[in-house]
Amino acid sequence: MAEEPVAPRVLTQVPGPRTLSTKKELDPIFDSRATQLVIDYEKSYGNYFVDADGNAYLDVYAQIASIPLGYNHPALAAAVQTPKMISALINRPAIGNFPSMDWLSSLEDGILRVCPVGLKQVFTAQSGSEANELAFKAAFMYYRRLQRGEGVEWSDHEIKTAMTNQSPGSPELAILSFTNSFHGRGFGSLSATRSKPVHKMDIPSFKWPQAPFPRLRYPLDEYESENAVEEDSCLQVVQHIIDTWHCPVAGVIVEPIQSEGGDNHASSAFFGRLRALTKKHNIILIVDEVQTGFGATGRFWGHEHWQLSSPPDIVTFSKKAQTAGYFFSDQMLRPDKAYRQFNTWMGDPARVLLCKAIIDVILNQGLVERTAHIGDILYGKLSELAKKHPDKVINLRGKGKGTYIAFDTVNSSALLKKMRTAGINIGSCGVDTIRLRPMLVFDECHGKVSKSSAIAP
């Protein structure tokens, strides 16, 4: 098995000739326009991946924030060789109809060990987009169930109109999301996504409302009064939409930190007031933890920083979990009939088993707490850099949020290229924002690997 390099190793131009030739060969049968590097995963290990040309990169982007424990982690390698995993892979069950005898223990010993406070039920899925789509469905069914009355059966008129996409069987209901949000690329999740036109262009969408997400000034502790005014203004718009939108708002979806839209933050007070609004109007609050979940913010779930008086109604997850789905608590969020939240696989038992192994490592090695500590160190070092180069490291943010750190710069594409040439793989988001998404096994030594990787000259 490979070992983690002690430092980046760049032997060729970036991208190298083998990456470029492989990309060219691939393109006729698989659109490779988004391909950045071709990776040799067998040679990758820990916080480093190795590309097709033999270049080794310190990866602080982690496959779009989805790798929790680094490449080829031995505990995960052991987990995939167990009889349970082999059975789950070769006998992939239609889990809603024919679960395995150990499905209950797989959930209880795995994902339910880390369920958000108050949310004891889970529905498994296959991706973050699907998790959010299913959460929207749950919110809509909940709304109509309350409206119809508990125990009241569907009318013949509802049944007939549902099949022709007309009301009341197909009611006009809405999910409220926020500017610059990203919730996925399915039809429902895409209708709630507001980050970039490239995601949405030419795709029919539900005519759902968006409220402004706070545009805060950083550092947050220096602009508390100004930011409070901004957040109050945004919440007033949320209230106005709830009061005046042409159809009922059944759910509100929000990210603890907007990720694809630019790593935008809001205060705990903002989220607490948003929760109060949704409770007041009996609207389902969906917290999208697809990217913030599983420890990246220095808490297992990003919304734990808010210290809410009552938990969200639904929390969706994916990425670092290596599986997907949503947690919920209210029994009314479980559909009134079977097969209403259903598909062939309803997730993937093999990925649920892998998630259990990930959780074991995270909890046994205290990786969430370590991420909080490492994040403080990284933020401190970047603060020093921002003081030296205020024209290049702008609006540094993420203090106290683990390694979930970002800053704006004058040309993020140029900086990404420069960093990759130095053997550092990093990510961007928003317009010109650089974001750090290191793995939970990132340590102090990884922040000191190369003086040549300095962000600014």
Q: What is the number of strand segments?
A: 15
How would you write the strand order of the largest sheet? 4-10-9-8-7-5-6
Query: Topology as H/E string?
Result: HEEEHHHHEHHEHHEHEHEEEHHEEHEEE
Per DSSP, the total helix count is: 14
Kindly state the mean pLDDT as a whole number? 95
Helical amount: 25-40%
Cα gyration radius (Å): 23 Å
- Derived from helix and strand composition plus strand pairing, the structural class reads alpha/beta
Question: What would CATH call the homologous superfamily of the domain at 84-363?
Answer: Type I PLP-dependent aspartate aminotransferase-like (Major domain)
Distance between the termini: 37 Å
CATH level 1 class label of the domain at 84-363? Alpha Beta
The CATH architecture of the domain at 84-363 comes to 3-Layer(aba) Sandwich
Question: The CATH topology of the domain at 84-363, please?
Answer: Aspartate Aminotransferase, domain 2
- The shape is globular
Tell me about the largest β-sheet: 7 strands, mixed
Low confidence ranges: 450-457
What can you see in these coordinates?
The chain has 457 residues and is α/β, with parallel strands linked by helices. It has a domain of 280 residues: Type I PLP-dependent aspartate aminotransferase-like (Major domain) (Aspartate Aminotransferase, domain 2), CATH 3.40.640.10. Helices cover 33% and strands 14% of the residues. The strands form three sheets. Strands 4-10-9-8-7-5-6 form a seven-stranded mixed β-sheet. A four-stranded mixed β-sheet has the order 1-2-3-13. A four-stranded antiparallel β-sheet has the order 11-12-15-14, with helices on one face. Helix 4 runs antiparallel to helix 12 and helix 10 packs parallel to helix 11. The longest helix has 22 residues. It is globular. The two termini are 37 Å apart. The C terminus is likely disordered. GO terms for molecular function: 4-aminobutyrate:2-oxoglutarate transaminase activity; pyridoxal phosphate binding. It is an enzyme of class 2 (transferase). It catalyses: 4-aminobutanoate + 2-oxoglutarate = succinate semialdehyde + L-glutamate.
